[in-house]
Design a protein that fits this description.
Number of helices: 3
Number of strands: 9
CATH architecture of the largest domain: 2-Layer Sandwich
Mean pLDDT: 85
Order of helices and strands: EEHEEEHEHEEE
CATH class of the largest domain: Alpha Beta
Radius of gyration: 27 Å
Largest sheet: 5 strands, antiparallel
Low-confidence stretches: 178-183, 194-208
Distance between the termini: 9 Å
CATH topology of the largest domain: Translation Initiation Factor IF3
Number of domains: 2
Structural class: alpha+beta
Strand content: 35-45%
Helix content: 25-40%
Shape: elongated
């Protein structure tokens, strides 16, 4: 009798608490006088750098800090015309720069973000949550193994349904998913904030930005061809 051929899928999901938070900020001013605009941004940037300089990646004793690193972008400027009335248009000048701060301690993120947002001309743009490369590798490997076991279990169920219970179920081909990080597809994606009783570190003030830690999920799907003897 010819061997039974089964093609089925395996799926798995693994989640892990976020380990890094990248806070993005913008220093920006717009006005009619280019010298004033440039000065405002320069002064605000200096204040921001003074605050961040106290948060060096390592303390004086060599102990790890609450931030991994911070970087300032290159200032950019542009001008544009704005219509003030039917008979008047004015030339406006804009100057901006960006800043990124990578946190390893989320309490520090919740404490520092309101302080920085209170500075004139400083805006919080968002937070990007992530895992370390080592954790991503471990999570993805565990998920792939679970997906393989899921596919094997499905194949064994089908084999039993066709009267092949106890037969040897051997995988002969595996086709992995795309690895895309888009929601609903395979790969890493950020989930909702913690809802399992862990502390959430929300910012104070009307920032319109959630600083609550999240979970990050890795989802994998694969197609496996089996032969049952």
């Amino acid at each position: 009798m010819a061997p039974l051929k089964i093609t089925t899928t395996g799926h798995a999901t693994k989640t892990h608490a976020a380990e890094r938070a990248l806070l993005r900020l913008c220093v920006k001013d717009i006005g009619l006088k280019p010298a004033n605009v440039a000065s405002n941004v320069q002064n605000a940037t200096a204040k921001l750098q003074n605050i961040l300089s106290t948060l060096s990646p390592k303390s004086a004793t060599g102990a790890a800090s609450s931030i991994l690193k911070w970087t300032m972008g290159t200032p950019m400027s542009y001008t544009y015309m704005r219509t003030e009335s039917l008979s008047k248009a004015s030339r406006y000048h804009a100057v901006s720069t960006t800043c990124e701060i990578e946190f390893v301690e989320f309490k520090a993120l919740a404490s520092l973000a309101p302080q920085l947002s209170s500075l004139d001309f400083v805006q919080l743009l968002g937070v990007e949550w992530s895992l370390t490369e080592a954790t991503k590798e471990n999570v993805s490997r565990e998920a792939r193994a679970l997906a393989c076991r899921d596919a094997l279990t499905r194949a064994q169920d089908y084999a039993r349904g066709f009267g092949k219970e106890g037969g040897s179920v051997e995988a002969v081909e595996v086709l992995e998913g795309s690895g895309s990080a888009k929601s609903g597809e395979d790969g890493f994606r950020v989930l909702d904030v913690y809802n399992d009783g862990r502390p959430s570190y929300s910012s104070s003030g009307d920032l319109g930005l959630s600083l609550q830690p999240v979970h990050i999920e890795f989802r994998v799907g694969l197609t496996v061809k089996f032969v049952v003897e």
